[in-house]
Design goal:
This protein has 505 residues and is α/β, with parallel strands linked by helices. It has 14 helices and 22 strands.
């Protein structure tokens, strides 16, 4: 309010400094618009004006550039400083426009505010209604699936997640018995079944469309799908050792609403994705990108509800893009503009008691403003495991985590599994995709992995900040089911780091 008062004080001072004018001269009309609150069908605004005889305001779902005459022909008259707009649709994003007039046709500039209406209780599913706060978790494991297996791997990767494939993520055994392991599971894939991109990518492939987004949700959330198998895997463990202390959380990847059908071709279509409610979306418009993400969020929530799982609960969505260019002037900002997209989808999710999560690579755009973008929980990729040329000290990653209030992503691939690397002809990639690691490198890669765990403890983060695990496409299963003694010991060492964290208590 101090800023508003100062603004009008300056205008008054300017008006008083103008040379001699007719006594009825009032100076230029001006208006200030502030959003106060909304329900699921109404919105309340503070409207303050100067040198005006009347102020009018109207709301639209579309982002417009109206002139003042249009505002006056379409808007409602402000009878005081606060204006209540009713008759709005629930769970919708709106733009409010206001203008003032002096006399008959001396208009002010048009001012605007965007806002969202709330949801009605009936829009919440049972697990959302029962939540007292947004979901956060001590640890989460990344589960890659729903896309084409990477043909660069030297051995077969299972196409589907079943209960047996989930088992090493769900629980582990040591000398004292069987224990629960990860609290949360992330469904993620970079490409769809046809090799199209779910994310913003410069590889020249097409961007995934609406049908592909639906296919990813179905892969994980339909009856007989991956998370149905996870539910069964948890049920099997519960039958042996009793129920876990709380339901396991699942997080669904949120595909990027890529502006172009091919991101590398800025002349390619921006209307390739599909339609919502019979209206073809244009991803050159922020509103249409947000509509697509809201549609996807509701699809995921609806499918999870229909799944009827007993042991898992939907926690929210995960941002696939590992960098968030959200400041004008950033690389390709005009094609990404995450600052205009993410806060809206974050608000949409949070109103439904669902969270928004992210794991960027080190030094990625957005790591210093992730909270401002509406993200609820974030982890940093140290990228140290693949640092063949020793260019990325892990201590630098811990400094970044500390500075930005982030958790850590533990990282390893099949190149740490001795049983796999002992197969004829197997090599493992570095961070640039060059196949440089062989069986002789397994001990040094394990030492790198231990530096993640030991360094996290030394930094004072263990038991205070969350941990995520990236294990390639299937490396945790390969490590956890290996018959090699060294692999078995490494698997238990990792499991104890996860399971013994005080953050789980």
């Amino acid at each position: 309010m101090k800023r508003i008062s100062l603004y009008f004080s300056v205008l008054l001072l300017l008006a008083s400094c103008v040379g001699k004018e007719p006594e009825d001269y009032k100076g230029a009309p001006a208006v200030q618009l502030s959003f106060i609150s909304s329900t699921h069908t109404t919105a309340t605004f503070l409207v303050e004006s100067l040198n005006s005889d009347e102020v009018r305001l109207f709301c639209s779902k579309d982002e417009l550039v109206p002139d003042a005459a249009t505002v006056f022909s379409s808007g409602i008259k402000a009878e005081g400083d606060t204006v209540l707009v009713s008759g709005l649709e629930a769970s919708s994003h709106y733009y409010a426009y206001a203008a003032a007039v002096q006399g008959k046709d001396r208009y002010s500039s048009v001012v605007s505010k965007d806002f969202s209406t709330g949801i009605v209780a009936g829009d919440l599913y049972s697990w959302e209604k029962e939540r007292g706060e947004l979901p956060v978790f001590a640890d989460i494991t990344l589960c890659t699936g729903g896309g084409t297996p990477n043909s660069n791997y030297w051995f077969s990767i299972p196409e589907y997640w079943d209960a047996d494939r989930f088992a090493p993520h769900v629980s582990f055994e040591d000398e004292s018995g069987e224990h629960w392991l990860f609290d949360a599971f992330l469904a993620i894939s970079g490409i769809d079944m046809d090799g199209n991109n779910y994310g913003i990518n410069n590889n020249g492939r097409k961007s995934a469309d609406k049908e592909s987004w639906e296919a990813f949700a179905s892969y994980w959330l339909d009856k007989g799908g991956a998370f149905d198998e996870l539910d069964k895997a948890i049920g099997k463990v519960a039958g042996r050792i009793g129920m876990p202390p709380h339901k396991r959380q699942v997080v669904m990847m949120m595909p990027d609403p890529v502006m172009f059908e091919r991101f590398t071709d800025k002349s390619s279509s921006t209307t390739y994705w599909g339609a919502v409610d019979g209206v073809l979306l244009d991803f050159s418009k922020v509103d249409d990108q947000v509509k697509a993400l809201q549609w996807y969020a509701d699809l995921v929530r609806s499918k999870f509800n229909a799944l009827g799982a007993s042991h898992i609960e939907l926690a929210g969505l995960y941002i696939l893009s590992e960098e968030l260019v959200a400041v004008p002037g950033g690389w390709n900002y005009q094609y990404k503009r995450w600052d205009r997209i993410l806060p809206k989808i974050a608000s949409y999710l949070n109103e439904r008691n669902e969270g928004l999560y992210w794991i960027p690579y080190r030094k990625a755009d957005g790591t210093d403003i992730w909270k401002d973008l509406g993200i609820n929980q974030a982890w940093l990729q140290p990228n140290y495991y693949w640092d063949y040329n020793h260019e990325m000290p892990i201590r630098d990653a811990f400094d970044m985590m500390k500075a930005n209030g982030m958790g850590m992503e533990l990282e390893f691939e099949y190149s740490m599994v001795e049983e796999v690397m002992g197969m004829a002809g197997i090599m493992g990639p570095d961070g640039s995709g060059n196949y440089v690691f062989s069986l002789k490198d397994v001990p040094s890669l394990r030492e790198r992995f231990r530096e993640y765990m030991n360094g996290y403890k030394a930094a004072g983060f263990y038991g205070k900040r969350p941990v995520a695990l990236y294990s390639g496409s299937n490396a945790l299963w390969q490590l956890g089911t290996s018959r090699n003694k060294n692999d078995m010991e490494m698997y238990r060492e990792l499991c104890h780091f996860i399971a013994n964290s005080p953050l789980k208590q």
